[in-house]
Amino acid sequence: MVNIQKLKYKESLKDKCGIFGIYGKGIDVARISFFGLYSLQHRGQEGAGITVTDGKNLKSVKGLGLVSTVFDEEKINSLKGFASIGHTRYSTTGGNKLCNVQPVVLNLKNDDFALAHNGNIINAMDLAHKLPSDVKLSSTSDTEIMGWVIKNSSGKNWEEKILSSFNKFQGAFSMIALTKNKLIAFRDTYGFRPLVLGQLNGSYIACSETCALDTVGAKFIREVAPGEIVTIDEKGINVVDKISSLKKSFCLFEYVYLARPDSIFNKQLVHQVRQRSGEILAHESPIGADIVVAVPDSGTSAAIGYSKASGIPYGEVLIKNRYIGRTFIQPEQYIREMGVKLKFNPLKKIVKGKRIIIVDDSIVRGTTMKKIIKILRGCGVRKIHIRVCSPPVTDPCYFGIDTPNKKKLIASYLTIKEIEKFIGADSLAYLSLDGLKKASRIKSNRLCSSCFDGKYPMPVEGGFRKDVFETIN
Question: Could you tell me which of 349, 352, 346 has the C-alpha nearest to residue 372?
Fold first, then answer.
């Protein structure tokens, strides 16, 4: 019996999580994993965990909150081993509860198995109902369901079990598994979410983004190919198998917002993709102004590109308080009502009497942009033109981004002119989908753009509905 509890919606789009795994004897794998997760914090802020193996047992430290609050010296020092996987989480399937913090560990008699997952399985509920009756789920996440499906699939070892279960999963999964003696990294055949490989001296790493490799001083080797299963152990990286993929669908929104600007996917530096998107947007939707500004930090690269192509100077106007984050301490009501003022403070003397172009990565509900514009109007700004370096977000994502249902997306029920009026802008323009794809320099048929056009690369009707498993018995 499955009871459903609807997700609470948040204004900005969030990726499900960041994952990091390392194999290396004679090094502090837990500490390296900590720094790897720290560099992937942007991919999830609700919980973090690290699981290590010493060849005999798996040991984990997990908790709610940011990486820096979950771990301290004592906890890092308690994690001794030669291989580890780590996870920083934003919930899409499953609520924000300690039981859902990853890595998920299957405690088996002689063969414990841990998983760290980035993505979303749209048929997880169906798979849960097909599990043997003696399986008792300890969490409400699709990742644990995947673990038990793998465990109950045919094969004489974990690699063979993963291979035989691969086609049972519908949706997105970039995963790193940990056994007692190795890492196993694998990626769905569509390649929705990123997964890269690196080398640190004699150690090997799998993780979500190349920025994590840079942080720990590792060298980028290559990406895990869609449909590929690799093992990482004392022999290095070994390809177990590669399942053929008829269609590639790398998430276009990774370039818009999700990834760090210093990461590289498909041989494209994210910062340069965003800068190109700003340049193309300037050509598609020019407007006269005195200054181009960004909504920091995700709009910065595109704003620089817009400024370069338009010839209008770029400047900082919205100063971001980078210490604003998630907290377990609930502020007083009057503080909550300050909203955007807590996060952004305008440079009043610079903007007064000016015509400004504000460049942002996306508009989801429009409420944040509406508040920003209201604040700037109060500072005496003469004209406010909004330029968005992605197309209107019109449809929910089922592949690892926390988007609401369609009726919560402002572009699904208002025209661009109506959105312009709602947020209070003097003008509003979005980058075209063709323009964004051009900026990515990836062939259109190798990208997932379903949040912009509603064209999903696989059937989603009747599958996962952006809901949460409350209980599965």
Answer: 346
